[in-house]
Amino acid sequence: MTTPSSIDLAEIRSARELLREVAVDTPLLHSRLLSETLGGPVYLKCENVQRTGSFKIRGAYVRIARLTAQERACGVVAASAGNHAQGVALAASLLGCKATVFMPEGAPLPKIAATRGYGADVIFHGPTVDGCLTAAQAYAEERGAVYIHPFDHPDVVAGQGTIGLELLEQCPDVRTVIAAVGGGGLAAGIGAALADRDPKVKVIGVQAKRIAAFPPSLAAGRPVRITGGPTMADGIAVGQPGRLTFELVSRYVDAVVTVSEESISQALLLCLERAKQVVEPAGAAGVAAILEHSYAVEPPVVAVLSGGNIDPLLLSKVLRHGLAVAGRYLVVRCRLTDRPGALVTLLSELAELGVNVLDVTHERVAARLHIEEAEVLLHLETRGPDHSQDVLDRLRGKGYTLTSG
């Protein structure tokens, strides 16, 4: 493998030439809301509208394009739950190369369909991406195919680094770039590009708090494997940094911060509602960092929206979570007297308060209820935290017993 020192501006410029007819120069959108929050200009680099819906096509195409004709004839193999799978599948198709992708059995159906749609053969293997990585490497050894690593290869890093060249042209006075970090290829590539062009720019990496391998690795001075918890940001749920990406992140990335699930869901909601961008949870991590770590950010800021491939079912769940965190989605249990008209009276109270009732579950027989009681589980849409509190205060003032849903 090429040494980390070879990932320089020349390599990244060469990668950009390879990608000129393949990847699009994604737009840079100004965010008025985030700019007001931060007190300076904030821009969103929209890789969520890149081909295949994420930045991954950049690194995958550069890696496969730099294979020899003989290597490409043997085919390529990869492992991924989504974005890398689609990037490899499309890149291989464009370069006339057979691709095989190992995906976990629970991978989202839209990502499976997209990977197959780009021409790859999909093999399901176990419940986790880590298991798929092992299976893909074994497949490569057995069949003579070339394993396309999702992040830990110089060509992949150089491809992702082309984003750094683009955003500098779009925002020459940028002072902070924020990018999601899983294995580290995106942040490493952007950091390497900016270090040569404008070393004054600060690069901040972002990981989901529930599975953040870089902070302990940076503290230990070497890649450390962790066992994290579940996160909605599955695109950056990587248990151990790569050797190459760890060295590059150590060198070129100024800090790696973590963000909570609540911040991620709020960021996703903000992107959809205010920026009109469909973004997956991992893709919204940079915006979450602005919300949670504004003290560490110097404007002008560019936050990379790294991907937009979100399952519609997950999107609906995450949006409900984001609305709840923002105080606009209220779930409450309400005790009332079990008599004719009691439920109508309760709903009338809510109507007077301007609440949108999304769902009602009415229960009259349960061991926890007295014989004269009923309980209603309410899913309510409100205008925000103050409105939610007004609703709770009004109902309690009317004598209703309330508990959280």
Question: Any overview of this molecule?
Answer:
The protein is globular, with a radius of gyration of 24 Å. The protein has helices at residues 9-19, 32-38, 56-65, 69-73, 83-94, 109-117, 129-143, 154-170, 185-197, 214-220, 243-252, 261-273, 285-292, 312-325, 342-352, 385-397; strands at residues 28-30, 42-46, 76-79, 99-103, 121-124, 146-147, 176-180, 202-208, 255-259, 301-305, 329-337, 356-363, 373-381, 401-404. The chain contains 16 helices and 14 strands. The model is unreliable at 1-5 (pLDDT under 50). Helix 1 crosses helix 8 (154-170), helix 3 packs across helix 5 (83-94) and helix 5 runs parallel beside helix 6. Helix content is 43%, strand content 19%. The protein is α/β, with parallel strands linked by helices and 405 residues long. The strands form three sheets. A six-stranded mixed beta sheet has the order 1-2-10-7-8-9.
